[in-house]
Amino acid sequence: EELRRRLGARAYCDAAGAVPYAAAAVCGAAEALLSIETAPRGNPHSGGGGGGSYGATHARAKAALLRHLGCESAEDCAQWEVVWTSGATEALRLASEALPWAPGSVIVHTRENHTSALGMREYALAAGAEAVCVELGDASGGPPGKGFNLAEVGAFQRRIGGAQAAQGSGADGSTAPLAMFVLPAECNFSGRRFSPREACTGKAFAAARLGGRSGSERGSALCVVDAARAAGGGTGAFDLRAWAGEADMVALSLYKICGYPTNLGALLVNRGGSGACSSLLKTGYFGGGTIDAAAVDADQVVRRGDGDGGGSCAPRLQ
């Protein structure tokens, strides 16, 4: 009703790009920031002062996001690490940038994909990986949606240093190649929705492709799901629990879910993913709030979380 009053006789035709924001969301955010009952908000990385209250706020925000995506129990929520980003585009960039791509790696993506998802292959190609475009469709002769066939549309690879990179290992022989399948939960252009079963088909293809290139036994492949559009269809539009068995990472934009704020998204990392994704993600760059200490006159950095026994990817990504 509120939106109809604001639009009047006009039609809003960009719901795939961003859903209209509600006045309650804008007013609620302003009220929370300006309320005299709460202390002024400081830097969230500060241990005390105005930044000290952000820990509980972040925890509530993460829990609210996961509940919106269908994670009701504490066990469901504990399976996912929430890394805040500026949107799905940055989430996809962060995911591809933080993975240890090596010669012999394979990145497979569907023909129907957002430009931001296609951008992920740049990191893989720069490291000597192969990029493969595929098309998923209903298996011929079977009932619609009961089975899927996969057709290769194109494959390409770049030359590194004037010569094709060696297959099956990293440049120094220490980094094993990896396989990844990237697909949207819903295509921005066509509106076609993909399912976890199609993700399973794509992961199997990527793993087999990796095995054929490296000569190793067929292993597992990572799966990255662009859920920015799918999650914008209201509560229950994207069920994260249904994807938990196939998706290792999920990218979101909150403005496509609730319209406001426009510069907030998340990368959800599956703690128990099929490819042990959380142990692979490592970024080289660090900034304020991501480290405990750094020496200015020596190559010594203590990243936040490195002293907790390991196992958490979040301190390296946030």
Automatic annotation (TrEMBL):
The protein's name in its UniProt record: Molybdenum cofactor sulfurase
UniProt source species: Prasinoderma singulare
